[in-house]
Amino acid sequence: xxxxxxxxxxxxGLFAAGSAALxxxxxxxxxxxxxEVAFAALWRKVLSxxxxxxxxxxxxxxxxLLVQVALLGLLLLAIGDPRLGEVLEGRHVVVVLDAxxxxxxxxxRPSRMARAREEAKRVVRGLPRADAALIVLAGAQPRPxxxxxxxxxxxxxxxxxxxxxDTAADIGRALDLALDALRGRARPVIxxxxxxxxxxxxxxxxxLAGVDLRYVPVGVSGENLAISAFQGRRxxxxxxxxxxxxxxxxxxxxxxxxxLDILTDGVxxxxxxxxxxxxxxxxxxxxxxxxxxxxIEARIAAPPGADHLAVDDRALAVVPERRTRRVLLVSxxxxxxxxxxxxDSDVVLERAAPAAYDAAAAARFDxxxxxxxxxxxxxxxxxxxxxxxxxGSPFGTPSRLREPILTDVAREHPAMRGVSMRDVNIREARAxxxxxxxxxxxxSFGDAVVVARSDGARRLxxxxxxxxxxxxxxxxxxPVLLANLLDWxxxxxxxxxxxxxxxxxxxxxAAGQTTAAVVTPSGRKLEAPVVDGRAVxxxxxxxxxxxxxxxxxxxxxxxxxxxxxxxxxxVAAGRALAPPRAGRSxxxxxxxxxxxxxxxxxxxxxxVTYHRRVTV
Length: 616
Hints:
Elements: E1 2-3, H1 8-27, H2 41-52, H3 54-80, E2 82-84, E3 92-98, H4 112-125, E4 132-138, E5 143-144, H5 152-160, H6 171-182, E6 188-194, E7 212-217, E8 225-234, E9 241-250, E10 256-264, E11 267-276, E12 281-291, E13 294-301, E14 314-319, E15 325-330, H7 335-342, E16 347-352, H8 359-362, E17 367-371, E18 383-387, E19 399-402, E20 408-409, E21 428-431, E22 439-444, E23 447-455, E24 458-463, H9 477-490, E25 499-500, E26 503-508, E27 515-519, E28 525-531, E29 534-539, E30 543-547, E31 550-555, E32 571-572, E33 575-576, E34 589-590, H10 592-611
Parallel strand pairs: 3-4, 3-6, 6-7, 15-16, 15-17, 17-18, 18-24, 25-31
Antiparallel strand pairs: 1-2, 2-34, 4-5, 8-9, 9-12, 10-11, 10-13, 13-14, 19-21, 20-22, 22-23, 23-24, 26-29, 27-28, 27-30, 28-29, 30-31, 32-33
Helix pairs in contact: 1-3, 3-10, 4-5
């Protein structure tokens, strides 16, 4: 027996002192009260009977004393918290609960996440009472669900609140969190509960060697179909209309017939049957799908039992309404620029000679184009395109390049989508030195000839050659480049806007805002901070968001989550992981509550016997 409260010696000492005090109290001779009576002979018979029962009365007093000593002993033992069993230190167990999108699969009923919660509860219920548990929810941003718990009921309540998200699980960071929580603690254990669809590289790490690592698999089937790609892009010949591209991928062995629906603003606009081969992909291209803007949603429906994950059966995008942009062209005259700008129906063009340039008036435009002119004072707030800038431009003093060949193009930048710079002839150009954060949209063997820069809420671009000294204006890429630049200046993309879950978003908002109101697809209301004119927020739900009054579409940002086949066996740190085992009971077979209950029973018996004159 081991005492977890007061030490055994202290309990014995207190018991000895208390027993001595009780004996002393019982040995005290009662001080009799003197009473005068009218006739003493009447009391002689009573006094004689009392003498004959004195022995019985002494025995009753000793019985009462033993009851009091027993009560004292039981109460001191309960305070000392005695425990039966050997001295065995408890384990520290971290239960890592997979909360990735694949845990929403329904191959086990009602879902993998519900089954994972039950498995995690089974692990907690099987822990000896000497063990402490910590529950970690492994999503894209792993987090503990509370502090260390030695009370299983508290840990079970935390598990009940665990839900899967529409993101991937960062199992590497979840293990980092678990190892940090276990650092310096005795007998560390990590129990992974999930479908095991994690990168193998995240599990092969040396710092897991000293930890008892266990695995509880969840899931039975990998049958699934998913929309693996969805894109809407404005047409280069008419930027008010757009084309749609869609890809459906099968994770089944057998071919599958699915129904493809496309909705615009919640109304069915297109339906088609689509056959997807086993383990194959099927593409659909819908040219000139629609005009204007709005919410676009693609959905697929498969036969029962063929598709166990619903979150990847829909993909979303928002085509923003095209708005008119006011453009100021400051030039001595350039028919190439004027013609390309006048051909764009979304542009309201105004012209000004360099001598008539007014910085205050220019600040009211969405974009200002300086053609072979560098103003001493650029417009405040407006985005600017410099064509063949001279000294004093924000891009520094350029160096000269003779007949450069454009070898480098930033094809992923929004301004260069659909723009081919191959074999563009340039008589002379200037290469910009650039600074940190600048993007070389086009360059010649590492020298930046076309540069883009984001400067807070406004954007700047410099073209380092005179358009009249090149054949770029004669190519189809020129009006596309100008339209892309204007879209980028005002925050409109050539592609339909679609964000991915599990990532930090930076959404443009109106100037002057410090926070932005956000409404998630599930109806939660948040406040997002605004940094450099953009609302910064983290998203973990698929659906349409409202950010500062604008509609934002979010689709599943982790295509690997569609590969839902579970792993029955998991290998980590070079060893196969076994299921968790129950620990030894150790010290936590406590009996103080039984001692306290026995003391209450004895006190009740003593009360009854006292009133019935048995112990008095």
